[in-house]
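Customer ticket, subject: "Can you confirm the structure for E3 ubiquitin-protein ligase CHIP?"

Message body: Hello, I'm evaluating your service for our small team and ran a test protein. I'd like someone to confirm that this is what the system normally returns, since I don't have a reference to compare against.
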Amino acid sequence: MAAGGDGVAQQAELRRIEGNACFKKARLGAAIDCYTEAIALCPNVAVYWMNRALCHFRRKEWAKVEADSRRALALDATLVKGHYLLGCALLDKEEFSLAIKEFEKALNLLKSENSTDKMAEDVWQVLAKAKYLDWEKHSTERVWRIQSLKEACESALQEHHFLSDTLVEDSDGSSNEYSEQIKLLSEVFIKATLADTPVDVPDYLCCQITFEIFRDPVITPSGVTYERAVLLEHLDKVGNFDPVTREPLKEHQLVPNLAIKEAVQAYLKEHSWAYKLNC
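Agent reply: Thanks for trying us out. I re-ran your input and got the following:
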């Protein structure tokens, strides 16, 4: 029985290898067929579902991406690409909050693995997009609710003063209590609207090279803060010196700027629209 099981597993693995070869040649249909055969032989192997999901991802067949990535994650919840692909499928469905959760799971897994590969950048990009779109969606709803509430408050205030016979101006032409309350009410709602209105992000929260809001800020001995990935690329391709001060600089001299990182996180929590700078 065990020998027969081993034979089935070997056949499934051969189908996977063949599927990988087809995938590399962009023969996605053939790759899907191979992975489907592997799944039929060994349905409890997460990587087979994951590989087929990647094929569907290339084809932008989002319903199939969601189905296969969910099956893969049910078998192995530590699959970074599984959470990434599921998040992309949910993003296409405009289920932004659910997509954000999947992307954050992927980033947390990468962090626990101390990964610095391109996958982390890819996940961050779609996470930023999801958070901005989620803000945009809810911002429109908030503006409508604020306007409706403002109109209701004005109507209630007007009715109150009408019944109290205090709508008219004072005899000396000065504003009465009703006018002052309407003015104050307007100021309150203007502030509420402005709190959710995009403005320029403070310069100290943005990299001097990319002008994007920081994600992983590091500070040089010269006291200048940069985005780590961008500065490392500069050191590798341009030269071992600080881009601004031109002072000699090596990678081991970089120190995480935790204060700026915390400030960025606090700012993004209050101003989700700022994620647009990074997506």
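A couple of notes from the result: Residues 129 and 279 are 5 Å apart (CA to CA). The beta strands are 217-219, 225-227, 255-256. Feel free to reply with more questions.
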